[in-house]
Amino acid sequence: MTKLDDLHQSGDSSWLIAPDPTAPGLTRTVSGQDETGAEVAASVVEERPLTIWLNGREIVTAMTIGDYPEYLALGFLANQRMLRPEDEVTGVDHDAELATVVVRTATETDHEAKLARRIRTSGCAVGTVFGDMMEGLEGLVLPPAELRTSWLYRLSHVINRTPSLYLEAGAIHGTVLCREDRPLVYMEDVGRHNAVDKIAGWMRAERVTGEDKILYTTGRLTSEMVIKCALMGIPVLASRSGFTAWGVEIARQVGLTLVGRLRGRRFLCLSGGERLVRDTDPRTVAEEEKRHRRKGAE
Amino acid sequence: MTKLDDLHQSGDSSWLIAPDPTAPGLTRTVSGQDETGAEVAASVVEERPLTIWLNGREIVTAMTIGDYPEYLALGFLANQRMLRPEDEVTGVDHDAELATVVVRTATETDHEAKLARRIRTSGCAVGTVFGDMMEGLEGLVLPPAELRTSWLYRLSHVINRTPSLYLEAGAIHGTVLCREDRPLVYMEDVGRHNAVDKIAGWMRAERVTGEDKILYTTGRLTSEMVIKCALMGIPVLASRSGFTAWGVEIARQVGLTLVGRLRGRRFLCLSGGERLVRDTDPRTVAEEEKRHRRKGAE
Q1: Contact at 8 Å (CB) between A197 and A140?
Q2: Contact call for residues B60 and B51 (beta carbons, < 8 A)
Q3: Which among A107, A139, A211, B194 has most CB atoms closer than 10 A?
Q4: In terms of CA atoms, which chain A residue is nearest residue B297?
């Protein structure tokens, strides 16, 4: 059994992409008063509209913090199955002034035509898109991936201590793509689905596959989060937050290992418990420090 | 100055609608394992699709916990300005089997026709709907409402101690309509916007106006939350969670008092601080107990 002390000693996590809480444009200092009446300058996250186009069609306006707009657009379209693995992307153009990203493909796909038709019949893309996502789960079974509890504790430990907008300004969600005990890519956004979509966009752009990965999120394990993770081909989803019943049901259906309420030594596994390798004694793991509970995107 | 001890003594909050965490169908018991490997039965919230129709048109599919579907539909349509105050609602029919709510009005409105046209041109209602909501803010100035800090502390105290799905199962958002120091209607849902929409639906059905109310939410003070509150005519929005910059900007524009990070004695007021009446010494207010921080819909 590994003791968490060993984990604590290895500080090098070699991020491929880590948050940059000091990047200009992601936060703004706003003046106000605290409970004592004292004037305070609070750091709050930005939130701006970004409209995503696929070829000649406006698809959605997302509210986003504004970083990695190209990954957000690519990942959104991939996770909504409007962009399939076989589609050749010929351009991803971000126009900061117009607040748009246009994704161009070599040929207009069936999916795009199908989408156009469905939007007209169903009134709004939300239901349609959700239906398309569910459709993508049919027959999908994720590879049976082992998950060591030492990885969970190590990931949670490193992620909670990595400087981030979450720690800096709160009111934001984070999603981290990991492999074994190593966190690789950490994306944040005002919407938790955007953070996941940015990861999906990065994976698509870098041709990274999901079968040996773990997805960590600060957000809840809802049906939509579970579906996105499954469509990304990632067999493990972990969160410091809780579950919904449908999220658990879908995870069990596709063979996804689902770990929630991961805080300090505690966690709850509601799907795939038989694939957990318990190589760490939880009594050797520290309770979560108070400061990691303070902020967050509730 | 009121001391919080006085507040603590008055336990009667006379809810008009309080959460019913024991209601059948809102939670499900799911088996899993905790960090020690022990089999546990966890209570998790339900999450189901509900499709909202306006007359003959399918508008949106919302993911909801499932209670108060009629209020959710009415409030969603009102907050999206698809249903205007002058529209006469002739029926609100929930079909549990089909998971639909159909809202019927006496006459098809201009807004409905406009919506149909816009969806076809813009590809998805999300951007359109957001545009319509912003349009509704033009020229809107909320009445300058006084906000006593004793009300804030009292509301936060009572709401945190009221039995709820939030305390029972976590992974859920709550929104509470209040007047002065009295919480009136407490709605919960997996999506924080649904919880607010249910409040808006209740207000519309009961012909209750917003000018003397306070809206409390467990969720973040994003632009959409601030816009909904302003469109509901409620001049004060308070949250235990944080802010986004655009949320603050819109609140200042419409004269909405915005209080965030309200936990125990602490809070931060980023809009409308001049309308705060500081009638409670924060040093007499207890720090938030740990158990109120544990769960939540992050």
Answers
A1: no
A2: yes
A3: B194
A4: A298
In contact, B27 and B44? CB cutoff 8 Å: yes
Q: Residues 6 or more apart from B131 whose CB is under 8 A from it? A: none
Q: What is the mean pLDDT of residues B86-92?
A: 94
pTM of the model: 0.88
Fold of A4-23+141-294: Cytidine Deaminase; domain 2 (3.40.140)
pLDDT tens profile A216-262:
999 999 998 999 999 999 999 999 999 999 999 999 999 999 999 99
Cβ pair A244:B45 closer than 8 A:
yes
d(CA B277, CA B290): 28
pLDDT in tens, chain A (298 residues): 444 444 444 445 589 999 999 998 999 999 999 999 999 999 999 999 899 999 988 888 888 999 999 999 999 999 988 898 899 999 999 999 999 999 999 987 666 555 554 443 333 334 445 566 677 788 899 999 999 999 999 999 999 999 999 888 888 999 999 999 999 999 999 988 899 999 999 999 999 999 999 999 999 999 989 999 999 999 999 999 999 999 999 999 999 999 999 999 999 999 999 999 999 999 999 887 665 554 444 4
Whether residue B124 and residue A120 make contact (CB cut-off 8 A), yes or no, is: no
Q: With contact defined as beta carbons under 8 Å apart, do A175 and A215 qualify?
A: yes
- CATH code, residues B4-22+141-294: 3.40.140.10
Contact B124 A126 (CB under 8 A): yes
CA angle, B262 then A32 then A27, to 5°? 90
**Cβ-Cβ contacts under 8 Å, A124 against chain B:** 58-61, 119, 124-126
Break chain B into its structural domains and give their ranges: 4-22+141-294, 48-135
Determine how many CB atoms are found less than 10 A away from the CB of residue A115: 23
The class (CATH top level) of B48-135 is: alpha beta
DSSP codes, B107-127: S--HHHHHHHHHHHHHS-HHH
User: What single string gives the DSSP state of each residue in A128-151?
Assistant: HHHHHHHHTTTT-------EEHHH
Question: Both ends of chain B: CA-CA distance in Å?
Answer: 35
